[in-house]
Design a protein that fits this description.
By secondary structure, this protein is of the alpha/beta class. Helix content is about 25%, strand content about 25%. The protein has one domain: Nitrilase/N-carbamoyl-D-aminoacid amidohydrolase, CATH 3.60.110. The strands form 3 sheets. A 6-stranded mixed β-sheet has the order 5-4-3-2-1-14. Strands 6-7-8-9-12-13 form a 6-stranded mixed β-sheet, covered by helices on one side.
C-alpha cells in the first residue's frame, strides 16, 4: 500500500518565494502523516492565471500584460535550479512529488512561459517534466505550446506515474500515449472542477485501468493578495469561491476511492494498492489485449522541439 496526499490549499498568489515556502511546509505536514506521494494542482507555483478568463477579449490586453509580467517574474527556470527546494524536500522526507508550475525557459528566449508538471522521485531526482501541449482558449495569452518530450510514464518509489494537465485529459491520443507505457498512477492536475470533470476522471480510471488523481486549487477571492494589479476588478465578490478544488482519487476500472473534497482546504489522504491497476486490466486493456494494432496505430514524436540549434 502507498499513501497519497493531495494538496488542496491555495498558493500565495503570484509570489513564488512565499508559495515555495508554503509548498515545503505542506510536504512536511504530509510526510508526518505518512504520505509517500504528494500532489499539487495545475500551475500551483505561483498560482493559476485565472485573470485570462476574467477580462473581456481584447479590452484586457494591456492589463494582462501587467499581470503577465508579475507571473513571469515569479516563474521557475529549471536550468537555474528553480526546483531545488522541492527536490531537497522530496529527498529529506522520502516522498514522490508531482507539482504543477509555471515554467520559464531561460536557456532559449528567457521570456515564454509554459504550463508544466514535474515529477520528482523520492531521492530528489527529476524523473519527468511535461509541458502542456495545448493551452486552452485564453491561456494562450500567457503560455506557449509544449512538445511530446514529456509524454512519459516514469518509474518512481510509489510506482509508474504519468501526468496530463487539465484539458489535455480530453485528448484521447495523449491519454493513449500514457496508457501504452505500463501506467499505475495517472495524475491530472487541473483548474477544472465539478461534475463534468469528475465524470472525466471516472472515465479515465475505467478506460486506462489505472489509479486516477484529479486536483485543482481550492481558492477563495479572500485568499488572493489585494495588492495584485486590478484586484477589485478581477474579484468584485470578496466571498467568491474562485475554485472549489474537488480533489479526488478514482480506483482502477472506476469507482470513487477518496473525495471529492469540495470547497474545503487541507490535504486529502488515501492509501492505494498500486498493483490493483495492472490486475484490473484483465477485463479491458486498451493498449494490450483490447487493442487492434492491425486497424489502429499511434505514432508519438517525443523529440524535444527547440526553436534553434547551434552547430
Amino acid at each position: 500500500m502507498k499513501k497519497i496526499a493531495i494538496v488542496q490549499e491555495p498558493p500565495v498568489y503570484l509570489n513564488l518565494d512565499k508559495t515555495m515556502s508554503r509548498a515545503i511546509q505542506l510536504i512536511e505536514k504530509a510526510a508526518r502523516e505518512g504520505a509517500q506521494m504528494v500532489v499539487f494542482p495545475e500551475a500551483w507555483l505561483p498560482g493559476y492565471p485565472t485573470f485570462v478568463w476574467r477580462f473581456p477579449p481584447g479590452a484586457g490586453m494591456s492589463k494582462t500584460d501587467e499581470l503577465f509580467a508579475r507571473l513571469q517574474a515569479n516563474s521557475i527556470d529549471l536550468s537555474r535550479g528553480g526546483m531545488t527546494p522541492l527536490q531537497e524536500a522530496a529527498k529529506e522526507h522520502e516522498v514522490v512529488i508531482v507539482a504543477g508550475y509555471q515554467e520559464i525557459d531561460g536557456s532559449v528566449s528567457g521570456s515564454t512561459l509554459f504550463n508544466s508538471c514535474i515529477i520528482i522521485d523520492a531521492d530528489g531526482t527529476i524523473a519527468n517534466n511535461h509541458r502542456k501541449l495545448m493551452p486552452t482558449n485564453p491561456e494562450r495569452m500567457v503560455w506557449g505550446f509544449g512538445d511530446g518530450s514529456g509524454l512519459n510514464v516514469v518509474e518512481t518509489a510509489v510506482g509508474r506515474v504519468g501526468t496530463l494537465l487539465c484539458w489535455e485529459n480530453y485528448m484521447p491520443l495523449a491519454r493513449f500515449a500514457l496508457y501504452a507505457q505500463n501506467l499505475d498512477i495517472y495524475v491530472a492536475p487541473t483548474w477544472d472542477s465539478g461534475e463534468t470533470w469528475l465524470a472525466t476522471m471516472q472515465h479515465i480510471a475505467r478506460e486506462g485501468g489505472c489509479w486516477v488523481i484529479g486536483c485543482a486549487t481550492s481558492l477563495e477571492a479572500s485568499d488572493i493578495p489585494t495588492d495584485i494589479p486590478y484586484y477589485d476588478e478581477l474579484f468584485p465578490n470578496k466571498d467568491e469561491w474562485v475554485n472549489p478544488g474537488d480533489a479526488v482519487i478514482y480506483k482502477p476500472f472506476g469507482g470513487i476511492h477518496a473525495g471529492p473534497m469540495h470547497k474545503e482546504k487541507g490535504l486529502l489522504f488515501a492509501e492505494i494498492d498500486v498493483s490493483a491497476a495492472r490486475s484490473s486490466r484483465r477485463k479491458f486493456d486498451v493498449s494490450g489485449h483490447y487493442a487492434r494494432p492491425d486497424v489502429f496505430s499511434l505514432s508519438v514524436n517525443r523529440a524535444a522541439q527547440p526553436p534553434v540549434t547551434f552547430g
